[in-house]
Amino acid sequence: MMEPTVGKPSFLRNILVRVLLFSVLIIVVRFAYVVTIAGESCNLGDFCFFSLPDNFNLVTIGAGTGASGITANKAVRSNVVSPSRRDMYTSKEWIKAVNFYSSVFQDLISEGYLSQNAKSLCVETQYGQDVFALKEIGVEDSIGIFKKSSKPLVISGEGHRIPFDGNTFDFVFVGGARLEKASKPLDFASEIVRTLKPEGFAVVHVRAKDEYSFNSFLDLFNSCKLVKSRDIDGIDSSLPYIREIVLKKESDLILGHRENLPDGNVANKCSVPGYKQAFVRKAEPFIMEEPLKPWITMKRNIKNIKYLPSMADISFKNRYVYVDVGARSYGSSIGSWFKKQYPKQNKTFDVYAIEADKTFHEEYKVKKKVKLLPYAAWVRNETLLFQINHDLDKEVVVKGRGMGRIQPVHSLSDGGFDGEVDRIQGFDFADWLKNTVTDKDFVVMKMDVEGTEFDLIPRLFETGAICLIDEIFLECHYNRWQRCCPEQRSPKYEKTYEQCLELFTSLRQNGVLVHQWW
């Protein structure tokens, strides 16, 4: 008797098994993508199967010794989460952070800066403890942004590029000193202002503990006014104290400490703000008696210099800029002093070297992080004479190469030049500075221009560009005693040491932090 054939059922069974395995593979791949790559929590539409039970509660420890149960808000409870995220929502760190932010937001509600119907945004919040706290106290329409989303509380977005339309939110919060960690603080602040509704409130937690950093922070928010500032205890040992700043957006209000142009540059008339002038009073005293050996005095005096970043936090600046006017070689001051000794607070500076002497230009071609301006800093744009004096009184980097001085072309007919003479291009340094930096940048300048400082400094005041400079290291050239020839003064310069002191004193009297350089 022949056995019945079973080929057809086996074929169908194989097809069904393969379809089932393929479906399982799709589900696994989708789950892995959503959870590990996209960084998002899942819902049923994402083929995820780890749902948070409806009766799941978060237990938060109150201010006292007891405990109170707070039911997880709908945003978390209704979503499916992975076991690791479920553990995060019940961790002590999460509960502590939620309690901290809840207390902060309840105070803001009682003071009228936040309401339960406010559309709210928390910026650069990685896991959304502040968003969760807002929802817990009844501010349901709240969302957070971070570069990697953590749904349902946090979606993808960054502080310098907030993914919402303008005038969207009634309340914007930035906690954890996140603004001062931003690589683009001005863009960060501008985005907060853009997305905040007129009459809306922005609350920012910062470490700002001195007047310089506090006012630098306020300068970032041009169209907001300061409503309140207070010091509060921080969330943990990593942030033990916080300055809470409350700002209100006012549509037509342009605030600032100086008279500003539309593009953010300083207008011709300016005055150094009081908070900067306070650091002038803390600066090292001038050397009032003319030094017999200035090259030795320089080495001693540099140890006494009180640098601005050693007295203040410079975090809230848009850019950090160093301008070396009369830079000579890279090792003359940029490499030997600024790179090694100036306290930069881990900030990256844009470095400009202004040097008219073509002898040094080739060296800067390999210095990729230095922008060379191969011209002479001057009071206007014009052709100049560049004179090389073989001055035996001063050490030079290039053997046999003297120090360069500039003069207008008509000076050639006056005679008296002793050395090489080249024609070079001079440029209006004050005008260049106003077009290169703004009052929201941190600007350090070293000036060693062989006597031209008596032309350039008045021009900086005349144009208002002086207010753009935070700190100046100025070498003032005078008829000093010559190293080579005892009891003889250099005939190279007409100014006296007393006139140099007058220049330094006038700068400090006008609120400019200037240091003597040799």
UniProtKB/TrEMBL annotation:
Residues 154-203 form the Methyltransferase type domain. The keyword Transmembrane applies. GO terms for molecular function: S-adenosylmethionine-dependent methyltransferase activity. This is Methyltransferase FkbM domain-containing protein. InterPro entries: DUF7870, Methyltransf_11, SAM-dependent_MTases_sf. It holds the Pfam family Methyltransf_11. Residues 283-381, 424-518 form the DUF7870 domain. Keywords: Membrane, Transmembrane, Transmembrane helix. It comes from the Eukaryota. PANTHER family: METHYLTRANSFERASE. The chain crosses the membrane at residues 12-33.
